[in-house]
Write a structure and sequence with these properties.
7-stranded antiparallel β-sheet; alpha+beta
């Protein structure tokens, strides 16, 4: 395409009145058609890209044209009817479909999901406040749980709060998010779910990125029908010239779609007459699948609507849109009171010729999206004008974006380069090798024998009869017995007349080697090695070697993976911005309001209350199968080491991102290790306290034992003293009796009783003084014995009986 082919486009600086006219849109549509050429032409840009895309899709489906193989194998015209084609299976080997499925499923297996984050200063401050609130709640989690048990209301549910702030940052996707971010993320996921985007649109777009090198999605938003993300076939997509694979600088874009005239009537309504539709049907009645015999048929429905036979005819229409830069006029005007005001004057303005007050015009250029739909090959154009509900960035209201989200893996001269287009040549050579192998196998002769007829002639059976060589060969085949002459007529010996002839397939190993060579070339080109598709897993291969091979394959496929992520991100960006500009009086607004809540929609629709939330979208992906296997190994190893418990393993497995899961696993391991260390330290402290208590108990027992021994010893000493005192008393009594006897013997029994009593009383007083002296001496001895100054006193059992009796005497 000629980069400077801009002469057919209308004036981009034309006044807004001219731009909104039907002629302006018709001229723009004609210029697009002229730039891309005829749909059916093979020399136009549209035809070249269409032919390349169709060939790639045939190879990706394993249904490519086999005529080139027939020409290379036979060397003659396969359609000439000369009967020279060999009896081979010309079905293509489905190698490319396998690689397409491996790459496509590898991308789709890591299901993407949007993570909406507000990037404006107001939201950052609000997020910081939310973060502080969550951190404070985590620190006071036990108190919040007690309050919840008592039935008190809390701002945050303590049961869903993580244990640490690190876990809140990793696990809680909405822990530190503001209410507006949560509302935007929920609404975005809900919109994608309503569109069945991942399974219906995104899957086909990823397949196109692998096969064609381009993926296209179109957004259509209507207050009554909702935000609709539609798949667009890249084969029928047209756009302005660009060298950017992500096509972020497009000035116009459109696509061609086939619809029926009845669908055209529904879309265009009363913008065309029935005569216009009839002329259109006349021009296409012999094209596509249109049946010319139904052109004149007509019937009337029960509702009174007339149906024509040509209503089912298929036609091509091209919805298109382009960026228009237009001025917005403002006026600074002085009032009669001398005050100056700044007033919006719209897109059309002219300064009044005569004005009492001072006026100063100002203007600002902004981008608008204009669009229309044209019936291809005609001048029938409808729905032209400025597109409504176009999402814009609040921080740059002068810019606008088309409703097409496009991404390419590579782009040169408007032709994308895909993975399939890079390996088509190797697939052809691999197919030829496969056909050559078939040819070699077909031409191989069966196993047989070499029979020397001369050596079998003239063999007799002894009864005069002779056997022919064929008879001998039959006997040898049936019985295993071979009859032959070992000597010729001249007497010379002869070799065995029947020798086995083995089967040989010529060049079969060379063809197999060629087949493997081109298969290896396909692997090297695509990057899908044996470790990635698990075609030849090796049990002795080290884990590091397998990971390196998988990493090498991921690097080779990065352009496709990156393009798919960019496409997904752009779709989510458009959805978020469209949600912010939904009219509050529309049916769709009320639908979202019921789905995500009135407060959430109020936050999202704050477009008029500047500064509104400026959202950024991050495309997150679930972990791949290799990541899941590696994570599962780490979890099992941690469980075996008792570094985590079962609840921790369940929480880690719920994570979608591998980095998120690994961080959470590290946090849980560290937390459990810290708890184990604290438990071990507590156990050691308890053991130390127990040992100390045992020592104190032992010391106390020893003290009690000493006290008991001292008490027993004191009691023994006291008992000994008591015994000694009793013995002293007995001795005193004995002494008294002895003295009485002496007194009686001395004074006589016949003395007067009074005198005897007086003498006896004097004697008692004397003995009493002696006893007191003895007791004083005994107590002095006891005191000295207690102070370990004397030995132990003799007990009563130690008293000499002779002394006792002598004392009595």
């Amino acid at each position: 395409m000629n980069k400077q082919n801009k002469g057919g486009f209308p004036d981009p600086f034309a006044p807004i009145v001219d731009k909104l006219s039907r002629g302006y849109f018709l001229k723009y549509a004609k210029a697009i058609q002229a730039q891309w050429g005829n749909i059916d032409s093979t020399s136009s840009l549209f035809g070249k890209r269409n032919r390349e895309f169709e060939i790639n899709r045939d190879y990706a489906n394993g249904t490519q044209d086999t005529s080139i193989y027939k020409q290379l194998i036979t060397g003659k015209d396969p359609n000439g009817g000369d009967g020279s084609l060999m009896n081979l299976d010309w079905s293509p080997v489905p190698i490319i479909p396998k690689f397409v499925r491996v790459v496509e499923n590898r991308i789709l297996s890591r299901k993407p999901y949007p993570s909406v984050e507000a990037i404006d200063p107001v939201s950052r401050a609000e997020r910081e406040n939310k973060k502080n609130e969550v951190n404070a709640a985590i620190k006071n989690k036990p108190m919040l749980q007690e309050a919840k048990q008592l039935g008190l209301a809390t701002n945050l549910d303590p049961d869903i709060l993580p244990d640490t702030t690190e876990e809140a940052q990793i696990m809680g996707e909405g822990s530190f998010k503001t209410n507006a971010e949560i509302a935007a993320q929920v609404a975005t996921n809900l919109t994608l779910e309503w569109n069945d985007f991942n399974d219906r649109v995104y899957r086909r777009a990823v397949h196109d990125l692998v096969v064609l090198g381009m993926g296209v999605v179109k957004r259509e938003n209507d207050p009554n029908y909702g935000i609709d993300e539609k798949y667009v076939d890249p084969r029928r997509f047209v756009h302005s010239y660009t060298e950017d694979p992500l096509m972020s600088d497009l000035s116009y874009a459109g696509h061609i779609e086939s619809i029926t005239i009845q669908e055209l009537k529904r879309r265009a309504g009363d913008q065309f007459t029935e005569e216009d539709y009839k002329k259109l049907a006349e021009s296409v009645k012999n094209k596509s699948m249109n049946d010319a015999s139904n052109f004149g048929s007509m019937n009337t429905t029960k509702s009174g609507r007339v149906q024509h036979g040509y209503d089912d005819y298929f036609i091509d229409v091209m919805p298109f849109e382009f960026i228009s830069v237009d001025p917005i006029h403002y006026e600074m005007k002085e009032s009669r009171f001398g005050n100056e005001g700044f007033y919006h004057k719209g897109m059309e303005y002219s300064t009044p010729a005569e004005s009492v007050f001072n006026r100063e015009p100002h203007k600002m250029y902004v981008q608008n999206v204009m669009g229309a739909t044209i019936v291809v090959g005609t001048d029938m154009i409808f729905d032209y004008g400025v597109k409504k509900n176009i999402p814009k960035n609040v921080h740059d209201l002068t810019r606008a974006r088309l409703s097409y989200s496009v991404a390419c893996t590579n782009l040169r001269d408007m032709m994308p380069k895909s993975m399939v287009s890079s390996i088509k040549g190797y697939a052809d050579q691999l197919q030829l090798s496969h056909l050559k192998i078939q040819h070699a196998v077909a031409k191989a002769m069966p196993s047989g024998f070499i029979i020397d007829v001369e050596g079998l002639e003239g063999v007799t059976l002894g009864d005069g009869g002779e056997l022919s060589p064929l008879d001998i060969a039959d006997i040898a085949m049936q019985t295993g017995n071979l009859f032959w002459r070992s000597r010729n007529e001249d007497g010379s010996g002869s070799a065995a007349p029947i020798r086995e002839l083995n089967n040989t397939v010529k060049n079969i190993n060379e063809f197999i080697g060629l087949y493997n060579h081109y298969l290896r070339m396909i692997r090297d080109t695509t990057g899908v090695n044996e470790a990635m598709d698990a075609s030849t897993p090796k049990g002795d291969a080290l884990v590091g070697v397998q990971q390196q091979a998988i990493a090498a394959g991921n690097n080779a496929l990065y352009d496709i993976t990156h393009a798919s992520q960019v496409l997904y991100k752009r779709v989510c960006d458009d959805v978020v911005k469209c949600l912010q500009i939904l009219p509050t009086e529309s049916v769709l607004y009320r639908v979202y309001e019921k789905a995500i809540g009135e407060h959430a929609m109020n936050l999202l629709s704050s477009f008029r209350d500047l500064p509104m939330y400026n959202f950024g979208v991050l495309v997150m992906q679930e972990m791949s199968m290799e990541d899941k296997m590696m994570l599962e190994q780490n979890i099992n190893q941690s469980l075996a080491q008792q570094a985590i418990n079962l609840e921790d393993a369940i929480a880690v497995r719920k994570c979608k991102d591998i980095e998120q899961a690994e961080k959470l696993l590290i946090i849980r391991r560290n937390a459990n290790m810290k708890k184990a260390q604290e438990a071990q330290a507590q156990q050691q402290q308890m053991q130390a306290q127990l040992a100390q208590q045992q020592q104190q108990a032992a010391a106390q027992m020893r003290m009690q034992e000493s006290q008991l021994q001292a008490q027993v010893k004191g009691q023994l000493i006291q008992m000994q003293g008591q015994v000694d005192m009793q013995i002293a008393q007995i001795r005193g009594q004995f002494e008294l009796q002895k003295e009485e006897l002496r007194a009686q013997a001395t004074l006589g029994f016949r003395e007067e009783d009074q005198a005897f009593k007086e003498k006896l009383k004097v004697l008692e007083e004397d003995r009493k003084d002696k006893r007191i002296d003895k007791q004083a001496v005994k107590q002095s001895q006891l005191i000295s014995q207690r102070k370990d100054q004397r030995g132990e006193m003799k007990g009563q059992q130690d008293i000499n009986p002779d002394d006792f009796i002598q004392g009595l005497v």
